[in-house]
Amino acid sequence: MFRNAAGMGVDAILFGNGCADPLYRRVVRVSMGHVLRTPFAHFGGKRTTWQRELEELKDAGFHLVSLTPHPEADHLADALVDATGRPYDKVALLVGAEGPGLTEHAMRATDVRARIPMAPGTDSLNLATSAAIAFYERDRSLR
Protein backbone atom coordinates (compact mmCIF):
# COMPACT_ATOMS: atom_id res chain seq x y z
CA MET A 1 0.00 0.00 0.00
CA PHE A 2 2.88 2.40 0.68
CA ARG A 3 4.16 2.19 -2.88
CA ASN A 4 0.64 2.86 -4.18
CA ALA A 5 0.23 5.79 -1.77
CA ALA A 6 3.55 7.31 -2.80
CA GLY A 7 2.73 6.94 -6.49
CA MET A 8 -0.62 8.70 -6.08
CA GLY A 9 0.58 11.51 -3.83
CA VAL A 10 -1.16 10.37 -0.64
CA ASP A 11 -0.12 12.56 2.31
CA ALA A 12 -0.16 9.88 5.03
CA ILE A 13 -1.39 6.42 5.98
CA LEU A 14 -3.20 5.76 9.25
CA PHE A 15 -3.41 2.23 10.67
CA GLY A 16 -5.90 0.72 13.07
CA ASN A 17 -5.08 -1.74 15.82
CA GLY A 18 -4.21 -5.19 14.54
CA CYS A 19 -2.56 -4.01 11.33
CA ALA A 20 0.81 -5.40 10.34
CA ASP A 21 3.91 -3.53 11.48
CA PRO A 22 4.74 -1.13 8.63
CA LEU A 23 8.43 -1.35 9.52
CA TYR A 24 8.53 -5.13 9.25
CA ARG A 25 11.39 -6.08 6.91
CA ARG A 26 9.13 -7.60 4.23
CA VAL A 27 6.88 -4.51 4.21
CA VAL A 28 9.91 -2.26 3.72
CA ARG A 29 11.09 -4.46 0.83
CA VAL A 30 7.70 -4.78 -0.89
CA SER A 31 7.08 -1.04 -0.54
CA MET A 32 10.39 -0.41 -2.33
CA GLY A 33 11.34 1.73 0.68
CA HIS A 34 8.34 4.05 0.41
CA VAL A 35 7.29 3.08 3.94
CA LEU A 36 10.35 5.02 5.08
CA ARG A 37 9.29 8.14 3.13
CA THR A 38 5.51 8.16 3.55
CA PRO A 39 4.26 9.45 6.91
CA PHE A 40 2.17 6.99 8.92
CA ALA A 41 0.54 6.74 12.33
CA HIS A 42 -1.55 4.29 14.32
CA PHE A 43 -5.16 4.84 15.34
CA GLY A 44 -6.56 3.76 18.66
CA GLY A 45 -3.55 4.13 20.90
CA LYS A 46 -3.58 3.82 24.65
CA ARG A 47 -4.91 7.35 25.21
CA THR A 48 -7.73 7.38 22.64
CA THR A 49 -9.94 5.23 20.43
CA TRP A 50 -10.21 5.02 16.65
CA GLN A 51 -13.75 6.43 16.91
CA ARG A 52 -12.44 9.55 18.63
CA GLU A 53 -9.64 9.86 16.10
CA LEU A 54 -12.17 9.68 13.24
CA GLU A 55 -14.10 12.46 14.96
CA GLU A 56 -10.89 14.49 15.13
CA LEU A 57 -10.37 13.99 11.39
CA LYS A 58 -13.92 15.24 10.77
CA ASP A 59 -13.30 18.21 13.09
CA ALA A 60 -10.18 18.99 11.02
CA GLY A 61 -12.32 19.16 7.87
CA PHE A 62 -11.77 15.70 6.41
CA HIS A 63 -14.50 13.99 4.39
CA LEU A 64 -14.47 10.35 5.55
CA VAL A 65 -15.09 7.70 2.89
CA SER A 66 -15.34 3.99 3.68
CA LEU A 67 -14.76 1.48 0.90
CA THR A 68 -17.17 -1.43 0.65
CA PRO A 69 -18.20 -3.82 -2.12
CA HIS A 70 -21.86 -3.35 -1.17
CA PRO A 71 -23.84 -2.71 -4.40
CA GLU A 72 -25.95 0.06 -2.83
CA ALA A 73 -22.92 2.15 -1.80
CA ASP A 74 -22.15 5.29 -3.81
CA HIS A 75 -19.85 5.02 -6.81
CA LEU A 76 -16.34 5.93 -5.62
CA ALA A 77 -16.04 8.87 -8.03
CA ASP A 78 -19.28 10.36 -6.68
CA ALA A 79 -18.20 9.92 -3.05
CA LEU A 80 -15.13 12.09 -3.58
CA VAL A 81 -16.99 15.20 -4.73
CA ASP A 82 -19.68 17.36 -3.14
CA ALA A 83 -23.19 17.92 -4.54
CA THR A 84 -21.85 20.55 -6.95
CA GLY A 85 -19.21 18.18 -8.34
CA ARG A 86 -16.35 19.94 -6.58
CA PRO A 87 -13.74 17.64 -4.97
CA TYR A 88 -13.54 17.72 -1.19
CA ASP A 89 -10.40 19.51 -0.04
CA LYS A 90 -9.42 16.83 2.44
CA VAL A 91 -10.40 13.16 2.18
CA ALA A 92 -9.64 10.22 4.45
CA LEU A 93 -10.25 6.84 2.80
CA LEU A 94 -10.98 3.90 5.10
CA VAL A 95 -10.09 0.47 3.75
CA GLY A 96 -10.80 -2.69 5.73
CA ALA A 97 -8.87 -5.91 5.99
CA GLU A 98 -9.13 -8.44 3.21
CA GLY A 99 -11.95 -10.83 3.93
CA PRO A 100 -14.04 -9.14 6.62
CA GLY A 101 -13.54 -5.57 5.37
CA LEU A 102 -14.65 -2.69 7.56
CA THR A 103 -17.10 -3.31 10.35
CA GLU A 104 -20.58 -1.84 10.18
CA HIS A 105 -19.63 0.27 13.20
CA ALA A 106 -16.63 1.73 11.36
CA MET A 107 -18.66 2.47 8.22
CA ARG A 108 -21.33 4.25 10.27
CA ALA A 109 -18.60 6.60 11.55
CA THR A 110 -17.83 7.82 8.00
CA ASP A 111 -19.59 10.41 5.86
CA VAL A 112 -20.21 8.10 2.92
CA ARG A 113 -19.82 4.49 1.85
CA ALA A 114 -18.25 4.04 -1.57
CA ARG A 115 -17.80 1.12 -3.92
CA ILE A 116 -15.46 0.43 -6.79
CA PRO A 117 -17.56 -0.74 -9.74
CA MET A 118 -16.60 -4.27 -10.82
CA ALA A 119 -17.58 -6.74 -13.49
CA PRO A 120 -20.53 -9.02 -12.67
CA GLY A 121 -19.48 -12.08 -10.72
CA THR A 122 -16.60 -10.31 -8.99
CA ASP A 123 -17.38 -9.58 -5.37
CA SER A 124 -14.23 -7.87 -4.12
CA LEU A 125 -10.65 -6.79 -4.75
CA ASN A 126 -7.68 -7.16 -2.45
CA LEU A 127 -6.77 -4.35 -0.09
CA ALA A 128 -3.77 -2.97 -1.99
CA THR A 129 -5.65 -2.96 -5.30
CA SER A 130 -8.72 -1.29 -3.77
CA ALA A 131 -6.54 1.32 -2.09
CA ALA A 132 -4.62 2.02 -5.32
CA ILE A 133 -7.85 2.52 -7.27
CA ALA A 134 -9.21 4.82 -4.56
CA PHE A 135 -5.96 6.79 -4.43
CA TYR A 136 -6.01 7.17 -8.21
CA GLU A 137 -9.66 8.22 -8.28
CA ARG A 138 -8.97 10.83 -5.61
CA ASP A 139 -6.01 12.16 -7.59
CA ARG A 140 -8.16 12.22 -10.76
CA SER A 141 -10.96 14.13 -9.01
CA LEU A 142 -8.51 16.94 -8.19
CA ARG A 143 -7.58 17.59 -11.84
From TrEMBL:
It holds the Pfam family SpoU_methylase. Keywords: Methyltransferase, Transferase. CDD domains: SpoU-like_rRNA-MTase. The keyword Ion transport does not apply. One of its GO terms (biological process) is methylation. InterPro entries: Alpha/beta_knot_MTases, rRNA_Methyltransferase, SpoU_MeTrfase, tRNA_m1G_MTases_N. Residues 1-136 form the tRNA/rRNA methyltransferase SpoU type domain. One of its GO terms (molecular function) is methyltransferase activity. It comes from the Bacteria. This is tRNA/rRNA methyltransferase SpoU type domain-containing protein. The lineage of its organism: Bacteria, Bacillati, Actinomycetota, Actinomycetes, Mycobacteriales.
